[in-house]
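Consider a typical record:
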Amino acid sequence: MLMKAAVENKTNHLQQRAGKKQPSGRQADLHMVSIITPAYNEAAIIEKNLQEIVDYMEALQDRYRWELLVVNDGSKDDTGRLADEFARSHAQVRVIHHIVNRNLGGALQTGFQAARGDYVIVLDIDLTYSANHIEQLLSRITETDADMVIASPYMKGGRNTAVPWFRLLLSRVVNRLMRLMSPSKIHTFTGMVRVYKKSFLQKLNLKSITYSINPEIIFKGIILRARIEEIPAHLDWSRQEKTGRTSSIRIFDGILAGLMSGFIFRPYFFFLGIGFILFAISFYIVLWIFIHTFSVLPEIPLVAGNFEDRFGLAVARVFSERPYSFMVGGICLIISFQFLGIGFLSLQNKRYFDELFHINTTMLDKHFQSRSAGKEASE
């Protein structure tokens, strides 16, 4: 009895140090969900929107255990103070502070590391995607056993409301380009609202500290043959329109990051594409030169010599009439070979990278498994 009590006391002590509450009864069998909301200068809306998320999750507490992580990303207003006050009155809310702004990628990486859930959901604090998407994301990931589920306003069934037309146009174009470049035909690469398996996130060695972290996760997930699903979502900017607020994410930075991510998906497509286009141009010019040369050949008198001499004179005449055709055709041909060569080299390097990433991910996964086993043994 004394030994059993000592073990129980040690377990409770370790859980208190980790800041966890010990689930009791049926709750211990429920999946744990971590909701991450990065926040930067959101003092005007943070209390109201956090309360909306909490109210929504409390309605689901018979199905999930949950926590809400607010990552205050170096805000210069009262975002941090208001979030702390809110957390003091809500036991399932935690606030993590960055001393300086570390951008979206840095905020998400902090949230991923601190999350305790089996599933990790990322949600915009401005609720342009409403809290109702939480249950839809969780239902899809549990039904399909996916590694990641993306809320997509661009797939069939998705909607956009009151989104500024220029922003919407650029976003659609970038996501369409990335869809063309990606081996996985996903509709929304740049969206942040998603749910992940925590075990999947632990396999990723994320590097980006900018908006490009969202495509980076998809890119590395594709390499790992992860199962990626999408659900139709409603992107609603009505609240933004009423309050006159704009998103804290810089639109052009996000667009540029999306284009660069599209290049990373299949870099050889860019080089091979340019190479084949230039080769087609040079082939057309060279073909025209040959046709024009043979049309001029009968005009060269037979006394000029054998066929080789007459052909040379015909080429000389064509050159004198169209010298720029020879120059443009030759330059395009040389540059096309250079781009094609770079394209094949980038294809080879891409395959080497995929193999190395697989090896490193396997080692990282084994490291986490051994560390988890060590923690369980110590408890």
